[in-house]
Amino acid sequence: TSAAATAAGGSIPMTTRQRIGVMVPSTNTTCEADFQMVVPRGFTVHGQRLWLTNGDVGEAGVVRMNGEIESGARYLATARVDAISYGCTTGSFFKGPGWDREMIALIEDTAKVPAVATSPAVVEALRLFGARRLSVATPYPDWNNQRLHTYLAAQGFEVLNLEAEPSAACAGNQGINDQDPSVIVEFATRACRPDADALLCSCTAWRSVEAVEEIERRTGKPVVTSNQASIWMTLRRLGHRAPIPGFGRLLRS
Q: What is residue 133's three-state secondary structure?
């Protein structure tokens, strides 16, 4: 054993671990937990918080939060992470297509490692399934939902319906994290239309990764969630393509 080898004067074999940096709104307690739950052995997860309060409503709080992206990337670079995932869906779609790519470029230029942002990862995941017609479930207030609809339409998707879970939508930024995945299963299943190609569960603070398998079982549709797509794209950027069971078709692909 390794302990015996050490006692006999040997050495414990070193294993190389790849480090994933995750930037999250400071109120978000779900995104990092989902990464830690899903990523396989050999990867470690290291968080950097971006200032957001539970009382921030509308664009101003997101603009202020995103003002910390460059400094957040510098902090994560000191940990010598191998990739950085920006873990906020709204923060990467609210300015429309183009801003998401600018954000990725800013992180990569600053930290000198590959970067992923949630919204473009979601788009790539939906395209992997060939999805065009979408049902969308969110925990967002109206302004977020309007911006999300605009972003998805600009990416070429037809949004058949976009529905917000009412108790989460009025819970505030931190309150979204506290909704039980069983509530998400029931709500998202009802929101998924029979004529949709796929269902999107948006928001990195929503515990939909834990719900995705059951939603897919009930609807028969591929389900893409914000954190699931971010994890999938981050692992791809790091060269990991082995299937990961238990968290939906995307990660099993």
A: strand
Which helix (H) or strand (E) segment is 142 a member of? Answer: helix 142-154
Q: What does 18-82 look like in DSSP terms, one character per residue?
A: EEEEEEEETT--SHHHHHHHHSPTTEEEEEEEE---TT--SHHHHHHHHTTHHHHHHHHHHTT-S
Whose tokens are 């183009």? That residue is 98
What integer pLDDT is reported at residue 56 of this predicted model? 76
**How far is C-alpha 40 from the chain's CA centre?**
16
Distance between CA atoms of residues 226 and 93, nearest Å: 12
- Give the residue carrying structure tokens 């897919």: 216
pLDDT digits (tens, 9 = 90+) for 12-44: 555 789 999 999 999 999 999 999 999 999 999
pLDDT < 50 regions, the chain: 1-8
At 156-175, the pLDDT tens digits run: 999 999 999 999 988 888 88
Looking up tokens 């998805």 gives: 152
- Cβ contacts of residue 8 below 8 Å, gap of 6+? none
Q: Which residue has the tokens 């309150």?
A: 175
Cβ(115)–Cβ(87) below 8 Å: no
